[in-house]
Amino acid sequence: MKKSLLLFRFSAMGDVALLAPVVQAFTLRYPDVGITLVTRQKFAVFFEHFPNVRVVGADFDGRHKGFNGLVKLFNELRQLGSYQVIGDAHQNLRSAVLKSLFRLVGVPSVTLDKGRAEKKALTRKENKIRRRLPHSAERYANVFDRAGFLIEPARRFKFPIVTAAQDELATFLESQNLSSNTPWLGIAPFAQHQQKMWPFERFAPLLEKLYAEQPLTVFLFGGGPAEIAQLETLRQQFPQAIVVAGKLSLAAELALIRRLTGMLCMDSGNMHLAALSDVPVLSIWGSTHPDAGFGPWGQSDEAILQVSTDVLTCRPCSVFGNKPCWRGDLACLYEISVESVAKRVHILLSQRTI
Fold first, then answer.
1. Alpha-carbon distance 281 to 263, whole Å?
2. What topology does CATH give the domain 178-349?
3. Fewest CB atoms less than 10 Å from the CB: which of 214, 239, 289, 296?
4. pLDDT(145) > 50
5. DSSP state letter for 303
6. What CATH code is assigned to 4-146?
């Protein structure tokens, strides 16, 4: 009987995407072992081209909601086959319930070490212990190691091309007035929390400065009605900018990101998608810090723009950016000027040509 690993990582988008280089490393080293990955169906695009990987879409808002839904998911997974071990790369209540159910039928598990204590020490208000913590991808790899599968994810990773998305992207690009001989810059101004977002009102003067400096094609990324509405206000000021948000499937967005010269973003899912597409990134950091283990995978410190912790000793004050600013002024973001961002974007765009 073929060996098989059952792997859990349900959300969020960037966290799930960071599993991709780890899963790739696993499939290359252990081609005779299958993976059943349980995640949200929309994230299957990150893994569908890897051999011996089966993605099971978890519907936690529908048929897999609540305890009874988890029992249903457990039974569905058992019907798909048997598993040698469970790798819990999420470590939350849902994954704990599923592990308990599988333990009753003799399937062992290993669980992600999130490093909560060391992250708390890094982000506490007083007596911070500052050190670079393991990256999330390295923590994922450790789950595989403890399951008996030693792997090392490649630092240079590029999502495989999703063939089905090429026609969708081609149709979208044909509808735009594009120049193929200008740099293509992606801009993703949003993140899950305000404490991770450079002030949106600064993007208009930034675009004005960037367009004045050189010919440029700008794609604006985001998601959801509120973000799209904000991006449309930028497009009204700069009609040459192209709003991508809400226009493409995730697969087609990935295909577009692969073609960018560079991506300007926050500490966000779009940062991870660009870095994992081997696209040079310039990410702006506020209350969070890449030392917590969530920096752009495979990229150097040149991919980071932040106020030094020597200047703002309160940084970082949060692992995920979900805590209010202790100072009350978000200086970590407001002290990053339009001029400094424009200068770094110019350097970013010089790194790669289409």
1. 5
2. Rossmann fold (3.40.50)
3. 239
4. yes
5. G
6. 3.40.50.2000
pLDDT at 163: 86
**In contact, 92 and 10? CB cutoff 8 Å:** yes
Supply the pLDDT for residue 229: 97
How far is 76 from 93, CA to CA, in rounded Å? 19
Closest CA to 277 of 249, 248, 297, 303: 297
Per-residue model confidence (pLDDT) at position 352 = 62
Residues listed for the chain = 354
Q: In a 3-state reduction of DSSP, which class is residue 135?
A: coil
Please give the Cα distance from 300 to 226 (Å, whole number): 32
Query: Under the phi-then-psi rule, with left for phi > 0, alpha for psi from -120 to 50, and beta for the rest, what region is 307?
Result: beta
Structure tokens given for 8: 């859990």
In what side-by-side order are the strands of the sheet with 109-111? 53-57, 34-39, 4-8, 85-88, 109-111
Q: Is 242 helix (H, G, I), strand (E, B) or coil?
A: strand
Place of tokens 């030693």: 150
pLDDT beyond 60 at 1:
no
Nearest CA among 258, 56, 300, 291 for reference residue 165: 258
Does 273 have pLDDT greater than 70? yes
Q: Give the pair of three-digit tokens for residue 288.
A: 């969070």
CA count, 13 A, side-chain hemisphere, 98? 34
Query: What are the tens digits of pLDDT across the range 82-141?
Result: 999 999 999 999 999 999 999 999 999 999 999 999 999 999 999 999 999 999 999 999
Looking at the chain, the domain(s) classified CATH 3.40.50.2000 span 4-146, 178-349
Judge contact between 284 and 189, C-beta under 8 A.
no
pLDDT of residue 43: 97
CB atoms within 10 A of CB 198: 25
Q: Are 235 and 241 a contacting pair, CB within 8 Å?
A: yes
Q: What is the CA angle 16-26-292, rounded to 5?
A: 45
Predicted TM-score of the model (pTM): 0.96
The alpha-carbon radius of gyration of the chain (Å, integer) is 21
Q: How far apart are CA 251 and CA 260, in angstroms?
A: 15
Burial 243-255 (b: 16+ CB within 10 A, else e): bbbebbebbbbbb
147: its two tokens = 């399951």
